[in-house]
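FIELD: query
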Amino acid sequence: MIKIINIDNAEKSEILTRDIKLESGVEETVAAIIKNVKENGDAALREYSLKFDGVCPENLRVTKEEIDAAYNGEDKEFIETLELAEKNIRAFHENQLRKGFEINKGDGIIAGQKITPIEKVGIYVPGGTASYPSTVLMNAVPAKIAGVKEIIMVTPPDKQGNIPPAILCAAKIAGVDTIIKTGGAQAVAALAYGTESVPKADKIVGPGNVFVATAKRMLYGLVDIDMIAGPSEILVLADGTCNPRFVAADLLSQAEHDRLASAVLVTDSEALAYAVRDELERQLPLLPREEIARASIEANGKIIIANNIEQGVEIANEIAPEHLEVCVDEPFALLDKIKNAGSIFLGKNAPEALGDYLAGPNHTLPTSGTAKFSSPLSVDDFVKKSSYLYYSREALGKVSDKIVLFAGREGLQAHGRSAAIRFED
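FIELD: result
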């Protein structure tokens, strides 16, 4: 049963704790996998596929025929739903496109910034206990908008050595260039180093389990990464007018992800708190993934009773959740007070699942409190910025002595001389 905490009787640590216990030995395991993939390429990928997935694909790359067969065999309504989601995601992210700028006052000085797409991006799409075509769209569509030339997707195969049709359909709609049948830390390593079948990527994005996250962290520097994603989180901020059935359902929408997921309700209503607790117990047995959701709720879930909604906002800002639902009648009155959240869902008719699949904002979000300083995946993640600078001889001459002075104060005379030497006889 979920814990109920009264704010007046609670320590701050009890409110903020994310009591998530990770497996020991993860770093050592991942380091060995990375080394094997670096040294043995495709052979290592096939070895791990057999070990972890129970299959050994002869061809690691998904063929065009496999993609077309999946697309043509898929339910038409689902294809239309994927296309609607892609349209909404594209419309939202097109607003994030940046342009370079140039400052030229006609005085012999030109300064500017240019925006260049990253050449090759690797997308990790989880498999295993669930299929995530939404992750394909959320990662690939912003990359395409940014102008990335090549998108390589890695995802684990099923027990028959195939990629789920829904994943292939989403990849086709989003414009993924290459699909590789491999997952886990070995897939991240393959993208970082390149193998016979896997092109080397410049950046790796997408969520995964603790082994995937650890591999991304260990390989950062050789490649760029989006973020180190922790377990999924939801915080529902609700007043006493909310329907406890809806609130419980929203909490469970994240709890079913995995046992480490965190679902939190913050409310100013004691009656709602206990009604939601009871409703969770009624709804849990209805879920196909009850075992996972129950483990999440019992280990990491909590209901916090605040003195008022304003205090509830303060608690939400301290927790800095991945997903924040603001379930009150006038949610926009609170929007400016919310400082730390990955994605904000306003009102009683915006369940978190709306953002997961269809509405358009990205669902790859900062977790584990990192929303205090980081942002959702966006078009910005797939471009790089370069500044540029031009000075005429006359313009440099006007500031040459200032450069010499500044460099001298830093004890770097060669810096200053590189400017002054241009005006010596």
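FIELD: remark
The longest strand covers residues 109-117.
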